[in-house]
Structure formats: C-alpha cells, structure tokens
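Final report, closing paragraph on structural work. Over the funding period we assembled a curated collection of sequence-structure pairs, and we close with a single example.
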Amino acid sequence: MQTTRPKPSTAHEPRGELSCRALAMPADTNPMGDIFGGWIMSAMDAAAFMTATKRAEGRVVTVAVSNITFMRPVKVGDAVCCYTEVTRVGSTSITLAVEVWVQRQGHGDRIKVTDAEFTFVAVNDNGRPRQIVDGSGASNGTAAGP
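Its predicted structure, as stored:
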C-alpha cells in the first residue's frame, strides 16, 4: 500500500476531477432555507462512488467518511459540483479527497463549500472484500495515479 501526496487545492481551483454536478433545489432545504447538509453529503458519496468504482474496476462500498467540513452554505439555485481525487489505494480499499464547489445561481466564481475524505472497500459478488487490481492486471497495494 502506498500513498500519494495530493496537491492542495487553491482558493480558486478545485482538487481532482469533476465527478458530479447538480442543481440545488427547494425540496432539499433545511428549516433555515439553506441546502441540507445530508443532501450535500449524499452528492459527495455518489461522486466518490463513481470514481472509486472506476478505479477498482467493480463494486465498492462506502466504509468511512472523515474530516467533513461544511465551510459555507449552499443556496437554492446553486450549481453544485463535486470533485474527486484518489489519494490512496490499498490492497482492498480506496481513499478519495472530495470537494464541493458551487457557482451561485449557476454562474460567476466557483466557491468551495465542503470537503471530506471518503474510503471505499472493493467487494465481490458476495459482498466480501476483494483485491484491487492495478492498471497492469496485478493485485495488491498501488499508488494512486495522476
């Protein structure tokens, strides 16, 4: 198992690749009128799942979410963009950095609103952990690639 040192995002540049984009809608608000944090977390999990599934070349399950930070509220009408970057690949697990950025009312500057770390485990058809195969077809721990 190896770890890569991910580049930190700057104030104006998301880290990783765009994995999911959605429009924040009124049905997803909390009692204060902002988008509910659980909706944001669900979008992050879906985005990370898609990236982890591709990297693992098969089924994965979420096993941990850590260091989630809600920095700014998301408003109705915001374009919500989830960016993912694989930061670690173990023999059966994948860890990703996930950032959420918005464009207020779908335009203007991007604003970072949330970030977290998601960990997935690759599983077989019986739901048991399985080895993750690297790009060459070999299994075992590998470093995350660019």
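Confidence is low (pLDDT under 50) at residues 5-10, 142-146. The helical segments are 37-56. We thank the funder for supporting this effort.
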